[in-house]
Amino acid sequence: MGCVHGKxxxxxxxxxxxxxxxxxxxxxxxxxxxxxxxQRSPDHLLQRPTLTGDSVGxxxxxxxxxxxxxxxxxxxxxxxxxxxxxxxxxxIVRTNLHGRVDAHFFAVFDGHGxxxxxxxxxVRDRLVEALSxxxxxxxxxxxxxxxxxLATNSELHESEIDDSMSGxxxxxxxxxxxxxCVANVGDSRAVAGVWRNGSVVAEDLSRxxxxxxxxxxxxxxxxxxxxxxxxxxxxxxxxxxQSWGDEENDxxxxxRLWVPNGMYPGTAFTRSVGxxxxxxxxxxxxxxxxxxxxxxxxxxxxxxxxxxFEFLSSQAVVDMVAKFxxxxxxxxxxxxxxxxxxxxxxxxTDDITIIVVHIKDSGIGTIDAASxxxxxxxxxxxxxxxxxxxxQESDICHQEKGNLPIMQxxxxxxxxxxxxxxxxxxxxxxxxxxx
Length: 435
Known about the structure:
Layout: H1 10-13, E1 32-38, E2 56-61, E3 66-75, E4 89-95, E5 103-112, H2 116-133, H3 141-158, E6 167-176, E7 179-185, E8 189-196, E9 199-204, H4 214-222, E10 226-228, H5 230-233, E11 256-258, E12 265-267, E13 273-274, H6 276-279, E14 288-293, E15 298-304, H7 306-309, H8 314-321, H9 327-345, E16 352-361, E17 377-383, E18 386-390, E19 394-397, E20 400-401
Parallel strand pairs: 1-2, 3-20
Antiparallel strand pairs: 1-17, 2-3, 3-16, 4-5, 4-19, 5-6, 6-7, 6-13, 7-14, 8-9, 8-15, 10-11, 11-12, 15-16, 17-18
Helix pairs in contact: 2-3
């Protein structure tokens, strides 16, 4: 955050070059899809809303009588000095994780450095596979997250990708039944919209891991990091003043991490995957994990890269989502406003990636999904009138959009009973079941 060329400090000190390779997609892709549940369940009990648009879908949670209605957007940044620069962000949505019909995974990865796009794509693919292979994921998700992140970090170090000065942050949300488990490494963010006292309030599901946090600052200092802004490193400001305000008011020159006797790596975050050089001064891949129950007051959640939150607060993002019934419209509005604010403050923008997930009542009643697996369920995919069927875990990976989407009036969504984000949730809704 706060750097003219992103998370690294290459713009002013040439610590390393931001010229990433293309982040190629992997896994199956679909424009529209709807999880329709276990074949043992009567088809007429399962909702199949008709969805349109480039990237929108639903995922049922039978055990909690919920439906996740989501959309994704990834927008390449505007870099006037590097017009061919690739989008270093990527994301993944995997439904039916681990073969369970009511377990769904949403994650955003924000790469940085010369090989940031390759790092982000590598971590996206390997992290979800590590989680899928972990038999303890639903019994102890915090432990499974930690194991998966650390293993993926080691694999990235050992891969052919040079991650000495490149890496990625990651923010991931696993919804399992009525439980939400969030893992964060870096400064991307997850935030929920919660109905409280007649309005929608932002509830942060992660904490940015930067030197602005006292605990993170002290941890990296103990590991030998110098914590200084660019102006302090260059001698413009007093390096002995260890105070930089906060993330909302850093004047575009946040505190960064430097090796004791060098002008690198200059990272504005304290945790990441990759960045092997920065590991020597305390940058770690260990996630912070939050687990919570989904309540009737939880209307939606957002998973996004820090390109969204550089100039928008969590509450501002939640306020925007609350205006739209259709998550596609919310993604479009947030991307447009983020883009506008970047250009208002700087002559470039960061890459912007957003996943918006509305939480609604499915209206089908609760179904015991403990023994359900995807070999007994199907995913219907609608592609311009052509019906397709898949019987395995379904991925939607990074899908870059060349231009910001045009905002349109969203249609009324009558496919589920749970109220949209801008209306109070139904008081009859109950999710007091274990995921």
